[in-house]
């Protein structure tokens, strides 16, 4: 069986539609369908079947995806072994970040990796952390952030490198009634209007955790994803917000920790299992760990 066709079947398992696979692999949907038909003839069984306007894997298709993972992982390891013969990591590594993570980590990563012979190609994409497996069809490394209370497992096909744990503070305008307090209690915020983010993103997951812990829903009056826009709305007195502690503010606003609950986000680098055997990817992960430790250390010393 052709490895490229096996990769298409795996991508179909990850993405769910032929059109999505075609987009990821820069092919036409008809070309993907044709290649999957050839793979079915090679296997001698039906691998996909109609499901409404979509398709789904048959039982045989799901079994073959498992074998495809083994074959493709072996091919990746073989490629990594060949790379390991080089004395110095080289080439390009593509890395996806959530926007505030890119602002914090991308520039120093590019500089540090370039000094060691590796070019980092970075992108900032505002998408839920749960989409990391799909993003890995396009990127070598995906840097995500999650609610610290999110304990969902990534599964055996992915490898995760913890980078940092970042506390979340309350962001207030200077004249707010709570701005003079050193720490704020959740009960002080019961009637507050909050500036939130789109559902599914990290901050929204934290708000859900707060509601679960307190039994009181958080009143979100605006939802914007860009932290700079959040700053403007808070500065205008339109609400308060949660802000990761290491995010640099452009506005003169007040940050205060919540004293009776620990709120934080975890920042992690996700790769496919075995990808870090490539020297260039291993180098990028090493640099990310060092840069993240420096960010956390510098903030604690300020």
From TrEMBL:
Keywords of this entry: Activator, DNA-binding, Transcription, Transcription regulation
Gene Ontology MF: a single term: DNA-binding transcription factor activity
Domain HTH lysR-type: 1-58
Upper classification of the organism: Bacteria, Bacillati, Actinomycetota, Actinomycetes, Mycobacteriales
Assigned GO CC terms: protein-DNA complex
Source species of the chain: Mycolicibacterium fluoranthenivorans
Matches recorded under Pfam families: HTH_1, LysR_substrate
Highest taxon, organism lineage: Bacteria
UniProt record similarity statement: Belongs to the LysR transcriptional regulatory family.
Residue stretches spanning the membrane: none
Protein name per Swiss-Prot or TrEMBL: LysR family transcriptional regulator
Keyword Transcription: yes
